[in-house]
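User: Run a structure prediction on this.
Assistant: Running it now.
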Amino acid sequence: MSELNVIKKERTSVINPLVTCQPLGAMYAVMGIYRGMPLVHGSQGCSTFVRYGFSRHYREPADIAVTSLHEDAAVFGGRKNLISGLGNLAQRFKPDVMGVVTTCSSEIIGDDVGGFIKTAKQEIIKKMGEEAANKIKIVQINTPSFVEHQYKGYDNAIKAIVNTLAEPKDEENGKLNIVPGIVNPGDIREVKHMLSLMGVEGILLTDTSDPFDSPLRPSVAEKTPYYQKGGTTLAEIQDCANSLGTISLANYASSAPASLEKKYNMPSKVSEAPIGIKNTDSFIRTVKKFTGNDVTEEILDERGIVIDAMADVASRYLFGRTVAIYGDPSITVGMARFITELGMIPKVVCTGAKNDYFIDDLKKVAKESDEDIDALSGQDLRALDVYLKENPVDLLIGHSDGRLMAKDLGIPLYRVGYPVYDRVGYQRRPIIGYNGALNLVDGITNTIIDKYYEPQDWKLQQ
C-alpha cells in the first residue's frame, strides 16, 4: 500500500528559501481591493523588496506605501511616522481602503498600531472633514515578519479585511464568497469564468486580476490619483457578510471563512486548489451545493476537452514519468494530484511552509495514486537539491527560483506559481479550472517532448 514519507529537516539554517515573510501576503491581499492602498509600517526595504518582486512577476507597477522607520523608531517608536503616513495617503490618494501592514520592526518595538490609527483618523477628519474622512476605511493587519510566511500573512489580511469591513443585513445577497489564495490574474479570471457559466455571482476576497494585469488605456484611466482598474470594491467586501457561503481555494487561507461562519452562520469550505480534474470537479460540486445552481453544458464541454487532451498524450509521453514539485503549499498539492491523473509519479513534493493541510492532503494523493510520495514540509530548495541528486526525476514543476538547480541537475523545469521572472506571460495563463488543466497538459507534454524526444524523430507521430 502506498504511503506518504515525510522527510524531516536536518538543519536549522535556511538555504535558498521557498518562502518569504508575512507582509508580502498582506500587501497582495490589499492590492486586490479597488482603490485599496497598503501602508507598510516598517522600514523602506519592507516595501521595496515586495514591489520589486511583484513587478518582476506581474510586469506591472505596484503602489505600496511605507512609513519608513529608521533607527530612531527603535527607541522612540513609529507613532509619528504612521499617523503622518495615513494622513498623507488619505489626502493625496483618497483611497477607499487603507491596509496598515505591520512588520518585524513595528511588532518588536511594541507600537500601539490600533491606538495610532484612532489618532490618525481624528487628524484626517480635521484636515478633510468628517464626511470625506469617514469614506476612507482603515484596516489593521498584524503580520510579524519573524514568524510564519507570506501565506500566513495573506490569511491574516483576508480575515482582518472581512472582520473590519463586513456589514450584515437582513437578507442574503445570493452571492458566493471566494478566497482565491495567492494566485495569478489568469487563475482568478478562470474562477470568475466558471462561476459565470453556472450563473453565480461571486465576491472575490480579494480580486487581483486587473490590478496585476490591467489594460493600458490612458484615455479612460483614472489619473488623479491613479488607480489600476478592477479589484473587489468596498461595497462588495461589506456585502460579503450576506453571501450564501464562502469557499477558500487555498489550504492556508481558512481564517476568514471560519470567521464569517462563526459570526454570520454562513457555511464555508476550505478546499484544495481546483487544479486538474478531481479538484475542479470538487469545486464545481461545492458551488452547486452552496447556490443550488446546475452544472451547465458549457462546463461539461470544457471538462470533456481536457479529458480528450489527456487521452491524446498521457499514455504516449507522460505515463510513468517521475516528477518533483515545489512551491506554494496549496498549488503543490493540487499539482501532485493532477500529475497522478496524467499517469505520472509525483516522487517528491516540497514546500517552505509548515502546513498540516499540506501533509493531510498529500496523504490522500498518495493513497489515490498507489505510489509512495516523499514530502519535504517547511524546507528549502537546498533540501530539494540534495534529494534530487540522490533520487533523480524526469521533470521539475515549480517557480523560477529553482531554475539554476534544474539547469545544474539537467532536469527540465515547467514553471508554475510565484515568482516566474525568467519567462513572460505566465501570470495571464491559468492553471486553475478545466481551462487551466488544459494549459498544464499542453505545457507539461511539450516540456517532456522538448527534453526527451528529437524534433526529427518519426516516433513522435506514432
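The domain at 22-148 is CATH 3.40.50.1980 (Rossmann fold).
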